[in-house]
Amino acid sequence: MDPSRGNETRQSGAAAGKQSGTAPGSGSGHPMRWTLRPAEPADVEVIAELRAVVLRPDLERLGRFDEHRVRQRLRDAFSPRYTSVIVADGAFAGCVTVRPAESGRWLEHFYLDPVLQGRGLGSAVLRTLLDRTDAEGVAVRLIVLRGSAARRLYERHGFTVERTEPVDILMVRQPATRARRLREGGTPGAE
Fold it and tell me: Beta strands 104-112 and 140-145: pairing type?
């Protein structure tokens, strides 16, 4: 199965609405072109492997890394209905899940290939997803591991700490106002 192939006919969950854009650069001097496509059940293994690679340093630092468990937790929670595969410059780059919840949305399983991190792709994808939730007027929650560099990305996009636990930090972002969307680099949109 080729996780980078497009599937533009089915749009649901995280993949609904705008699904492409550009990020500042891929290291070659040109902007990185990216799109979101709906995940399929066959994507689970490539995503589980990416999860293990991305989370390993933080989980090892916290004394929580387990080679099997890190992959199995993704397999057990995988929901193609709400998951999008991130394709950058035609290749598999990562994934993100935006799951509906009673109090808004949960942002889960947001993983980018480590070679693409720090190049603006995560911010571009996150901005797109948050523009959608802002338009819906709903809060977004997520859990980030303590000490993870990802926390800075989320804070730059308006997330604040709601609760701290021994391993996890629960963060929340209320729907943005027009002024905050502009400060965070998003589109103004409707109020």
Answer: parallel
